[in-house]
Design brief:
The complex is a heterodimer. Chain A contains 16 helices and 29 strands. Chain A is an alpha+beta fold. In chain A, a hairpin with a 5-residue loop joins strand 18 and strand 19. Chain B is an alpha+beta fold. Among the domains of chain B are: about 50 residues, Uridine Diphospho-n-acetylenolpyruvylglucosamine Reductase, domain 2 (2-Layer Sandwich), CATH 3.30.43.10; about 110 residues, 2-Layer Sandwich (Enolase-like, domain 1). Chain B is built from twelve helices and twelve strands. In chain B, the strands form three sheets. In chain B, strands 4-5-8-6-7 form a five-stranded antiparallel sheet, covered by helices on one side. A four-stranded antiparallel sheet of chain B has the order 9-10-11-12. A three-stranded parallel sheet of chain B has the order 1-3-2, with helices on one face. In chain B, strand 11 and strand 12 form a beta hairpin. Classes of the chains: A alpha+beta, B alpha+beta. The interface between A and B is large, with 45 and 42 residues.
């Protein structure tokens, strides 16, 4: 099944010049609000049964007994999949075939590695029967003492952080820089474990047909999921058909296929029927990744002039006992501030949790709140306005590499956001501002940054006999608006109006679009679409310019230009021919071509590529009760070419709200003895509600970047969190004079500091 | 989910008969019970659905000036009843500060009184909890307990009662009407919820089969309408339980507090009536010094049950705030951010 969305041509969708840059409304919006968008768990193939995972309530040890008989006796239960009774796998789920192959629990043993790990799967005719069957398993355990938290054990230097980044980076002489400083900051910040909590839980509907497998599951990387599942089941990747037209959020947790999703495939194989498996909310706190807790020590030295002499950022992070993902928290200090000496380093601790994974702005989110707080502390120690301090230490080139930036309109971001916010005149000292009701008022700021990445993705373009175009790419829409933005790019790539093209996406049967992560999807797939469009039009031009009956004959590919479904001679615009006329005369039903989008290694080695932004926050604090309320957020962002300003604004709003959440609300609370998460639900795992979200404003700053990729796109998916979290935290300091370094900021830290 | 019987009795008498068997429990809107069942915390063998019992969804003005609220009146309906909000503004504000709009639309008055604690260890079937399993122990005691009780707790249980609604109710001497095997009886709300002591599993004074049919507010509860507030500190602005809350109701005449009512939420296993503080206030001029003294009296017996000493200080400050705001006079309308300290902010 492929999904095809056609744009309706109402006035908001009228093309004015380029389709790129237009604030098109979501092409899939009406489907979503009317319930017609079919998410993975909405599928019910004939004969489908339900699988429910039984999860461990211990964090470390072994399962010694399961009451399988009791579960099987429950009416409706079909089978119980356990380590002793499961389909054979072709590959060890603990094998590390590539850097993206994370170990998963597929009932390969009775070992328990973390709380909420799958220990059995009950398959039944109804969800209720499967759920009760799982409860009836009443597991018994041999419990070992769980290792919990940042002090759980010996630290070690990880082999790499993030994706292959060095754990330690040195630039200049830190000790000399600190020794030369007239002011020094030495502060330690802690950030908690956080869980992605996409609204849509991980879900899968799996149907086997011989050695072909059809699955509906939310994915941010269908081709990688195909490879992983193919390896586990010993079938060719091409035999696996994944449909993932819509995701109810992913935030990185759906980038790699997770253990529970594979368990659904195994269950379908075991019972020989289509199976649906959906995680309960609480079951998402374990096997599908998380943002690990961090403890970050930052040392900053400054001279009398307020210029940095040293910036050192050390991060301690946790990873699982059995696999390696290292949140690159300290890397946030590589690019933002000019300092003659920069050192970043990471240490890791193994704990009994699921393996942490990429979570929206991995590294940058955790690192940014610490760095931006420390910069605020340094500015305050120097008696310099935080914005002025950042401008003084503005990095004209990437400090750690000396590379020029491919583009960097951060100064304009600072200026525009500061002006809009009304930053001028802000008192340097904290606790100076009150509103008319007596609440303390504070203003804080933070710098936002995220690398402009590119992965590899492909697209296929077709121009049909009727002159219409088709663009195909197995891209992923997690809610960010890929359907819409990529349709816009497709229309321009094919030089057709929006209503003259179809954009096909959301299934693995289409060209591999790579992974929707790293804020790189629009850039990557957009480049693939751009190249595919150029290639198919080149074929069309070849047909026309080599045919003497064509008015374009002899012009050559470079001598024609495509516009609105026609090729025109560059030297004589009046001589043109429509796509349909060219194909008809050539007697060709259609022309097609492929394109690839990928990073340009030459440009990457020459330039530092990052998106930037500046976020300003106002908070109010009750002077006796310590309750904090964000009252304004203004952000300005420079992120290369903006494909769809409407969707970009939504992305940035979402990121900024997540930053607010990071500063004030969000935290997974773990029992230090058992290793169980105590708030694995949306009632007690707090994210901001509407009433917590203040009036917000997003400004986008134009940036022309000829180096990042053909379309000049930098990506906006993650940058909004960075800067925002620190801005809110700094505003709390400015309001109260209390510097809270453990996030989220808790009421007790503020209320006890305020005095009665 | 486990299989269970579901019955929908036609009368209160039938309901009591159905619910008197072991393993049976009443079901109203299920905003709490269904979560507990899905989490395996509660495994009733029979649900007795009372939502269609006749006559329990009415708000009645009694001849003596009191008010009788049927147990099946929805939280939202009660809070938005104009007469009710005018006469008992702190109760309406507390109702609207609780849960979310969706939950308030579903939840019933009787069900709200019967909601269980939000102690994470009570909800986590893998943890020891004396409420769930008498004698098992209390994992909250040395666990993550920054939000746990500071008043009336025991070594056996440090959980708090989560209701906002019950806080002003207990301050205004609400009475619970109960039908049971022995007929009808009534109980001051203050006596409905029990402190844990040696038997934390006995959360209320109800016996098996007992059904709350109505809640009554006495005549004099209206006398505080001009000086009533509910203030709730919480970790986000909506859909969060109180860290600490306070309901204050004053009767002020000739510049003196003639009578004061004060109750606290989020501090104990029951909504906490602060009678000592009320005595401090009675007869005094409404000023900051007397509020602070009342706050000290209200928390005089408090002690931390874990990492929650801050709640004792915070609770005293909330008492002062609630009294200050109550003395200043009930606002004309319930603030858009009910219960929030920021509710006095324009546009909030």
């Amino acid at each position: 099944m492929t999904v095809e969305l056609n744009l309706t041509r109402d006035p908001a969708h009228l093309r004015h010049g380029s389709n790129i840059g237009q604030p098109l409304r979501r092409t899939d919006g009406a489907l979503k609000v009317t319930g017609k968008a079919r998410y993975a768990a909405d599928n019910h193939p004939p004969g489908m049964v339900y699988a429910v995972i039984a999860t461990s309530c211990i964090a470390r040890g072994r399962v010694t007994a399961l009451c399988v008989d009791a579960a099987k006796r429950h009416p409706g239960v079909i089978d119980v999949m356990t380590p002793a009774h499961k389909p054979e796998l072709a590959e060890d789920p603990d094998a590390k075939g590539n850097p993206f192959a994370f170990r998963m629990e597929l009932l390969q043993s009775d070992e328990v590695r973390y709380a909420n790990q799958a220990i059995a799967v009950v398959i039944a005719e109804t969800l209720e029967a499967a759920t009760e069957g799982a409860a009836l398993l009443s597991p018994r355990y041999q419990v070992e003492i769980a290792r919990v938290g940042l002090d759980a054990g010996e630290t070690y230097v990880p082999p790499a952080v993030g994706i292959g980044h060095p754990a330690e980076v040195r630039h200049g002489d830190i000790d000399a820089g600190l020794a030369a400083a007239s002011k020094r900051i030495d502060a330690t910040y802690e950030t908690p474990a956080q869980y992605h909590n996409a609204m849509e839980p991980h879900a899968i509907v799996a149907v086997w047909d011989g050695d072909r497998l059809f699955i509906d599951t939310p994915s941010q990387g269908m081709a990688m999921a195909q490879m992983r599942i193919a390896g586990l089941f010993g079938i060719p990747p091409a035999n696996i058909h994944i449909n993932s037209p819509f995701l109810g959020g992913g935030f990185g947790s759906k980038g790699l296929v997770s253990g529970p999703q594979v368990l659904g495939v195994m269950a379908a194989k075991l019972v020989g029927r289509p199976v649906k498996l959906v995680l309960r909310r609480s079951q998402m706190y374990g096997p599908v990744g998380h943002r690990p807790p961090t403890r970050q020590r930052i040392r900053i030295g400054t001279g009398d002039d307020g210029l940095l002499t040293a910036l050192e950022h050390e991060a301690r992070i946790t990873t699982s006992s059995f696999d390696d993902f290292y949140e690159p928290a300290a890397d946030a200090s590589h690019t933002l501030y000019a300092s003659p000496a920069i050192r970043t380093a990471h240490q890791a601790v193994r704990v009994d949790t699921g393996t942490p994974l990429f979570m929206r702005a991995p590294g940058e989110a955790t690192g940014s709140i610490a760095l931006e707080s420390a910069i605020d502390e340094a500015a305050f120690a120097c008696g310099i306005d935080p914005l002025e301090f950042r401008l003084k230490n503005y990095a004209e080139v990437e400090p750690t590499t000396g590379k020029p930036f491919s583009s960097k309109a951060l100064r304009q971001c600072y200026a525009k956001a500061a002006e809009r916010f009304g930053w001028a005149g802000r008192p340097l000292q904290p606790k100076q501002m009150r509103d008319e009701n007596g609440f303390l008022v504070g203003w804080g700021m933070g710098t936002a940054t995220f690398p402009a990445l590119m992965f590899q993705g492909n697209a296929r373009a077709v121009i049909r006999a009727d002159g219409r175009g088709v663009m195909e790419s197995g891209a992923h829409d997690m809610g960010q608006g890929a359907w819409t933005a990529l349709t816009q790019i497709s229309a321009d790539a094919l030089a057709l109006d929006l209503d003259q093209i179809s954009f096909l996406s959301g299934t693995s049967d289409l060209p591999d679009a790579g992974i929707a992560g790293g804020s790189a999807h629009t850039a990557t797939v957009g480049a693939a679409i751009h190249n595919a469009g150029a290639a198919v039009i080149a074929k069309l031009a070849e047909l026309a310019t080599s045919d003497e009956r064509s008015p374009l004959f002899g012009a050559g590919n470079a001598g024609v230009v495509a516009r609105a479904g026609r090729l025109h001679r560059r030297d004589d615009d009046a001589r043109s021919e429509s796509y349909a006329e060219i194909l008809a005369r050539a007697g060709v039903a259609e022309v097609e071509a492929s394109g690839t989008g990928a990073a340009d290694p030459a440009a990457q080695s020459q330039y530092a590529m990052h998106a930037h932004g500046a976020v300003f926050a106002e908070v109010k604090v009750d002077p006796e009760l310590g309750q904090i309320r964000a009252t304004r957020l203004v952000g300005a962002f420079a992120a290369g070419r903006i494909i769809n300003p409407l969707m970009v604004r939504s992305q940035l709003y979402g990121g900024m709200i997540w930053g607010l959440s990071f500063a004030l609300h969000e935290e997974a609370v773990m029992d230090k003895r058992s290793g169980r998460i105590l708030n694995a639900n949306l009632a007690e795992y707090h994210v901001p509600v509407n009433a917590d979200v203040p009036p917000m404003e997003v400004i986008t700053v134009d940036e022309h970047d000829p180096h990042v990729n053909p379309l000049g796109i930098k990506g906006v998916g993650e940058i909004g969190i960075t800067g925002s979290a620190g801005a809110v935290a700094n505003a709390v300091f400015h309001a109260t004079g209390i510097r809270v370094r453990n996030f989220p900021i808790k009421i007790e830290e503020v209320v006890m500091g305020l005095g009665g | 989910m486990m299989n269970f019987d579901y019955v929908r009795p036609a009368s209160v008498a039938d309901a009591i008969a159905e619910a008197s068997e072991k393993g049976a429990t009443y079901l109203a809107s299920g905003t709490n019970l269904l979560d507990l069942m899905k989490g395996g915390v509660s495994r009733p063998s029979r649900l007795v659905d009372v939502t269609r019992l006749p006559g329990l969804d009415r708000i009645e003005h009694l001849a003596d000036g009191g008010l009788r609220i049927g147990a099946l009146v929805r939280n939202a309906d009660l809070a938005h009843d104009a007469d009710f909000a005018r006469n008992y503004p702190a109760i309406a504000e507390a109702l609207l500060s609780g849960a979310s709009a969706q939950l308030r639309n579903a939840a019933t008055v009787g069900g709200n009184l019967m909601q269980r604690t939000r102690c994470a260890y009570f909800y986590d079937a893998g943890s020891a909890c004396n409420r769930r399993w008498p004698g098992a122990g209390c994992d909250a005691l040395k666990g993550e307990n920054r939000l746990h009780a500071v008043l009336g707790w025991s070594e056996g249980c440090i959980a708090t009662h989560p209701s906002d609604f019950c806080v002003p109710l207990v301050g205004l001497d609400a009475v619970v009407e109960i039908e049971g095997k022995g007929g009808r009886r009534e109980l001051p709300l203050e006596a409905l919820h029990r402190l844990p002591g040696e038997t934390p599993e006995r959360e209320t004074a109800l016996e098996r089969g007992d059904l709350i049919v109505a809640l009554r507010l006495p005549t004099e509860a209206k006398n505080f309408a001009g000086h009533s507030r509910y203030i709730k500190v919480r970790e986000r602005t909506s859909y969060a339980f109180a860290v600490v809350s306070a309901a204050a109701a004053l009767r002020i005449e000739d510049g003196k507090i003639r009578e004061a009512r004060l109750a606290l939420g989020g501090v104990a296993a029951k909504p906490w009536r602060a009678r000592g503080a009320e005595q401090v206030l009675a007869g005094a001029a409404p000023d900051a010094a007397v509020y602070r003294e009342a706050a000290r009296a209200a928390l005089a017996d408090a002690k931390p049950s874990g990492d929650n000493a801050f709640k004792i200080e915070l609770a005293q400050r909330i008492v002062v705030r609630a009294l200050t705001l109550a003395a200043a006079g009930t606002p004309d309308r319930i603030p858009a951010l009910p219960g929030s300290p920021f509710s006095s902010v324009a546009g909030a």
